[in-house]
């Protein structure tokens, strides 16, 4: 069985760890932290993960806190077949040197630039590109959301170009020091935001341009998408295609799911681990084809939509499964994805 190390046990890392633990064809070697806080203690005492430290000079702090550590990140990666790097964006380049020295494969997250690995990943659009690769990068939560639906629509509608306005959550739920508060912030203030060009790194056929703004909410991003299409398709054809695609949910505002808050409540109803919603919900009422233009609105649970993609990326990079559909189905089943 292949071994996986998780470097960085924050919002994404702890979810990837739980998802790896739920698979029967891979196992966790350990996870890493730099601070001996509640997440470090829970990782060891509740989850039973071996904990390694990202900054060796801080070893005494973990000892003082009575949190058992198994070694340093350098020790951890010696034992693994692949490291999933879930450290904050931009720490990646220095880690890549360490991974190269250790001769270990690595999967990065969307906070790093595509150029770091030269290869980016989305399970449905380009699984095969990362098969057997040394390094890849799972694109960001918003890019993942755009890719899942645009790829599906392109298959039946032949997209000419796509434009999207991205409403981004201001911070993750536990990030108490971040904002914005009482404000809407164009972010970045320039156009395009990274999301549209980033779609091209996993689906280079389509011209996607995006602009983004931050709003004072912590749960879910929301996308407003306009697509010019070449094929003569009806609204019902788009609905049917999205309904058939796994990791995408066509949901009804009329059933009480008309907001991001209600969607997060729905995830609780489903009894999901950490209340996560791995799928991209698309509002049925918003899907509308007018002549050669399609309009739709969707949401993204930023903490969780990339987690199944990381599991598939592990199978691709380690050549555990060559058939993307089989990997996706296996991941979906293990995580209860609809
Ligand atoms: N949050 C989100 O909504 C999403 C994030 N991403 C991407 O995922 C990546 C991780 O983001 P996220 O999980 O939010 O980040 P977090 O800040 O929640 O977690 C980062 C983790 O990395 C650890 N860490 C910090 N510095 C170092 C270091 N120098 N060496 C080793 N480990 C370190 C932190 O440990 P400690 O806390 O102990 O310091 C923490 O466990 C980023 O690229 C981000 O862009 C992608 C999709 C969605
Ligand atoms: O990958 C994400 O967003 P993104 O798709 O807008 O880059 C995550 O929500 C992290 O965003 P952040 O960089 O605002 O913490």
Tell me what you see in this structure.
By secondary structure, the chain is an alpha/beta fold. It has two domains: 2-139 and 306-335, Rossmann fold (3-Layer(aba) Sandwich); 141-300, Dihydrodipicolinate Reductase, domain 2 (2-Layer Sandwich). Helix content is 34%, strand content 24%. It has 13 helices and 16 strands. It has helices at residues 11-21, 38-45, 59-65, 73-78, 92-102, 114-117, 123-126, 141-157, 195-199, 235-244, 260-269, 307-317, 324-335; strands at residues 2-7, 26-33, 51-53, 71-72, 82-85, 105-108, 120-121, 135-138, 159-169, 185-186, 208-215, 221-229, 248-251, 280-283, 288-290, 293-300. An eight-stranded parallel beta sheet has the order 4-3-2-1-5-6-8-7, with helices on both faces. The chain has a six-stranded mixed beta sheet with strand order 10-11-9-12-16-15. Helix 8 (141-157) crosses helix 10 and helix 12 crosses helix 13. The chain starts with a strand and ends with a helix. The mean pLDDT is 97. It binds NADPH dihydro-nicotinamide-adenine-dinucleotide phosphate and 1,3-bisphosphoglyceric acid. NADPH dihydro-nicotinamide-adenine-dinucleotide phosphate (NDP) binds at residues 7-13, 32-35, 54, 86-89, 91, 109-112, 140-141, 172, 302-303, 306.
């Amino acid at each position: 069985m292949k071994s996986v190390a998780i470097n960085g046990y924050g919002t994404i890392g702890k979810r990837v760890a739980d998802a790896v633990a739920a698979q029967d064809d891979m196992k966790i070697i350990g996870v890493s932290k730099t601070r001996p806080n509640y997440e470090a203690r829970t990782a060891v005492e509740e989850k039973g993960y071996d904990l390694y430290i990202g900054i060796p000079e801080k070893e005494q702090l973990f000892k003082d806190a009575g949190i058992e550590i198994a070694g340093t990140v350098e020790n951890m990666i010696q034992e693994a077949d692949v490291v999933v790097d879930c450290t904050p964006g931009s720490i990646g380049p220095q880690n890549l040197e360490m991974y190269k020295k250790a001769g270990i494969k690595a999967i990065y997250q969307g906070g790093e630039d595509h150029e770091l690995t030269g290869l980016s990943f989305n399970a449905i659009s380009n699984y095969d590109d990362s098969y057997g690769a040394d390094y890849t990068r799972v694109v960001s939560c918003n890019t993942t959301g755009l890719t899942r639906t645009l790829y599906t629509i392109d298959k039946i509608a032949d997209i000419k170009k796509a434009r999207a306005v991205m409403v981004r959550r201001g911070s993750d739920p536990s990030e108490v020091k971040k904002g914005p508060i009482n404000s809407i912030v164009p972010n970045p203030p320039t156009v395009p935001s990274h999301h549209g060009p980033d779609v091209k790194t996993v689906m280079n056929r389509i011209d996607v341009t995006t602009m983004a703004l931050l709003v004072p909410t912590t749960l879910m991003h929301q996308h407003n998408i306009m697509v010019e299409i070449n094929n003569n398709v009806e609204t019902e054809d788009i609905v049917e295609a999205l309904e058939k695609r796994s990791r995408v949910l066509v949901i009804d505002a009329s059933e009480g799911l008309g907001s991001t808050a209600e969607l997060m409540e729905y995830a609780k109803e489903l009894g999901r681990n950490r209340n996560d919603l791995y799928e991209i919900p698309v509002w049925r009422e918003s899907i509308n084809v007018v002549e050669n233009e399609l309009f739709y609105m969707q949401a993204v649970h930023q903490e969780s939509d990339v987690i199944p993609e990381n599991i598939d990326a592990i199978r691709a990079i380690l050549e555990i499964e060559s058939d993307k559909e089989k990997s996706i189905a296996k991941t979906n089943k293990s995580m209860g994805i609809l």
